[in-house]
Write a structure and sequence with these properties.
single chain; 279 residues; alpha+beta; 15 strands; globular; 3'-5'-RNA exonuclease activity; hydrolase; nuclease; CCR4/nocturin_mRNA_transcr
Length: 279
Amino acid sequence: MKFLLIILSLSLLPQLAFAESLKLMSYNIRCGFCEAEGTPQYWPERKFLLAHLIQTQQPDLIGLQEAELFQVHDLVAMLPQYLWFGEGRDDGKAKGESTAVLYRKDKLQLLSAKTLWLSETPEKISKGWDANLNRTFTKTQFKALKSGQSFYFFNTHFDHMGQQAQLQSALLLKAEVETLPENGKVLLTGDFNVEPSSEPYKALSKSLNDSALVAAQKLSQNAGTFNGFGRDPTSPSQTIDFIFVSKNLQVSSYQVDNRRYNGLYPSDHEALVAVVELN
């Protein structure tokens, strides 16, 4: 009996050795040229707050929204543990906002990455349906260096006005997820500009789980994700940012990091953080 228990214990060692958690962040950092010089919201002033928040959370993987590439350069200069991929939505290179992805170079290896447009022609620089602006999603595949496990990571930013574009964008992402291998592990972060009662959210929820709902430990209760820099204290914060995961993944914890620095906001959105079990 004792010999049998030893054999059973040894058989569990590979599983334990390859168990791996991934700390994931979604963060709309507010575009760099959108706030007036001389205000606390001006990027050169608040970039240090953003970098501090990221540094204290130490996520392994970050999906940024509204990130102009000079902002990404600023952040990575302060956070040298990260590598990144991102392309501007207006020219597929450096012009315009991006859905950039940052990742810990000591934890993850980037296997593939591309920018696609939320439109009828995703491979081309384009504006889709009734959208007000060009909108993109970043599609990547990573390998976790510790366990060797691979997974897919999508990061996106839906249009803020076009309702048809919001729904069609959700359906496009859902279709992209469904083309992946059946047992593939999928993560999706983004500013979706829709609330949980919306049709786009419901469409995505057919293929993926909202980490805020399935997390074993919910560190934030009823916490909204859009704060508008607190400019309208009478308006409640909206929940329009989400971290979705495929149904074969477990979420250990979910948090909305809504810290302030002496009353100052790092962004007009809060940072979302989820710990996902890759095993």
